[in-house]
Amino acid sequence: MVTSPEQRSTAAVQPAAADGASGASAEPIPLIRVRDLRKEFRRPKRHHGFLGGLRTLVTRQYTVTQAVAGVSFDIAEGELVGYLGPNGAGKSTTIKMLTGILVPTSGTVEVAGVTPWRERERNARQIGVVFGQRSQLWWDLPLIDSFKLIGKLYDIPRETYHANLERFTELLGMADFLDTPVRQLSLGQRMRGDLAAAMLYNPRILYLDEPTIGLDVVAKERMRSFVAELNRQDRTTVILTTHDLDDVERLCSRIVLIDRGRVLYDGDVAALKARYAPYRELVVQVADQGSVQETATAHELSALVPGVDQVRFDGSKVRLRFNPERVQVADVVAAVLERHRVLDLAIVEPNLEDVIHQIYDERPTAA
Ligand SMILES: Nc1ncnc2c1ncn2[C@@H]1O[C@H](COP(=O)(O)OP(=O)(O)OP(=O)(O)O)[C@@H](O)[C@H]1O
Fold it and tell me: How far is the CA of 260 from the centre of ligand 1 (A)?
């Protein structure tokens, strides 16, 4: 299931138009516009053994990897989009083309009217980039000196620099380590420094590539709340690639899901869940758990509570799955309360991770 950029907002689960061109003239111009983007990596085929090196040079055969195989999407100002996919799907390659680090094999990208790889400097002023695995800070300098250097490099007006430094220091809790050399910072501190450095010159767009990788829960939450604040207060447009779907649940209303260089899904998270996992679970802990398990098979129990499709015993809890479009939550709860003494009860939404696994499981296998 693929959606073209112009279809996404109105019909998130419709098939894509073949050409991916925008037809709606009244639509506002998107901040980021990507059309049929492709990137092919060619590596010389290596021959081994006696005279292999010579053959490699002479035959000039190549191994071709289609890292990005025709991706199109639009992103409006102020959107916060999760760009997701399994290892090797083409996420980093796409981000590298959007940031101007890589030149595509074909296709177009416009970022606020700029073709990133043609006007790298103009593009650099309007984007902030954080790669979780790499730092743009000066390793041997105190963190504050990296900020000062960025202030000079980007010609940030004095007032803007000081206002941003003060705000980010407060929001990211950096006061205690501003004077510490970057190489002595913990990963969580360094990531906060990187995030602040990426935003010091007020870019309109922030690209985050695995920004919470390796962080503990507290550090992750700090990063997430900072990104949410930038997006809400400053309308910063954010594109986030991550394998941590809690980042996505917490931050993104829209996701673009890619696989083998192609878009599998582009739309909002709620619509994705409604399509692939149209259920809720009532999770109950009952006083008579033992007797429930002894006297009622899952099948019998689901017959007792009308509208419940599936019942699972999960440790001390019973999980009853139902479709909220067919049966009211209140009716399911009432049916359970009528029969059992309930100690605890919760309604749980399907988790994005399960939904995405389901999509990968259902996709056609590679040719
Ligand atoms: N410089 C390169 N030369 C050759 N192949 C490359 C290069 N960079 C990426 N690839 C290949 O392109 C494909 C997409 O890689 P990419 O790094 O974009 O994936 P990804 O979705 O970011 O994966 P991950 O989640 O593991 O970071 C992979 O098959 C990868 O091996």
Answer: 10
Helix (H, G, I), strand (E, B) or coil at 285: strand
Which numbered atom of ligand 1 lies nearest the CA of 90?
18
Please state, in angstroms and rounded to a whole number, the distance separating the CA atoms of residues 71 and 108.
10
**Residue of 91, 97, 98 with the most ligand 1 atoms within 8 Å of its CB, for mutation:** 91
Angstrom distance (rounded) from CA 284 to CA 264:
35
What does pTM read for this prediction? 0.80
- Tokens 């003494």 belong to 341
- Residue 133, Cβ neighbours under 10 Å: how many? 9
For residue 156, the SS3 value is: coil
- Judge contact between 84 and 257, C-beta under 8 A: yes
Cα–Cα distance for residue pair 331/132, rounded to 1 Å: 46
* pLDDT recorded at residue 21: 40
Q: What domains sit in the chain, N to C, each tagged with a CATH number?
A: 5-274 (3.40.50.300), 279-349 (3.30.70.980)
Percent of the chain that is helix, strand, coil (3-state, to 5): 40, 25, 35
For the CA of 89, the nearest atom of ligand 1? 21
Atom number, ligand 1, closest to the C-alpha of residue 93: 18
ipTM of model: 0.97
Q: For residue range 267-317, what is the model confidence (pLDDT) as tens digits?
A: 998 888 888 778 888 898 877 666 665 555 555 666 666 778 777 777 778
Q: Which of 142, 116, 144 is nearest to 129 (CA)?
A: 116
Count Cβ atoms below 10 Å from residue 184 Cβ, excluding itself. Answer: 12
Total residue length of the chain: 367
Residue nearest to atom 13 of ligand 1 (CA): 67
What is the C-alpha R_g of the chain? Answer: 25
Q: Are 6 and 76 in contact (CB under 8 A)?
A: no
Residue with the smallest CA separation from ligand 1 atom 8 is: 93
**From ligand 1's centre to the CA of 91, what distance in Å?**
8
CA of 41 to the centre of ligand 1 (A): 9
CA distance 262 to 276: 19
Please identify, by atom number, the ligand 1 atom nearest to the C-alpha of residue 85: 21
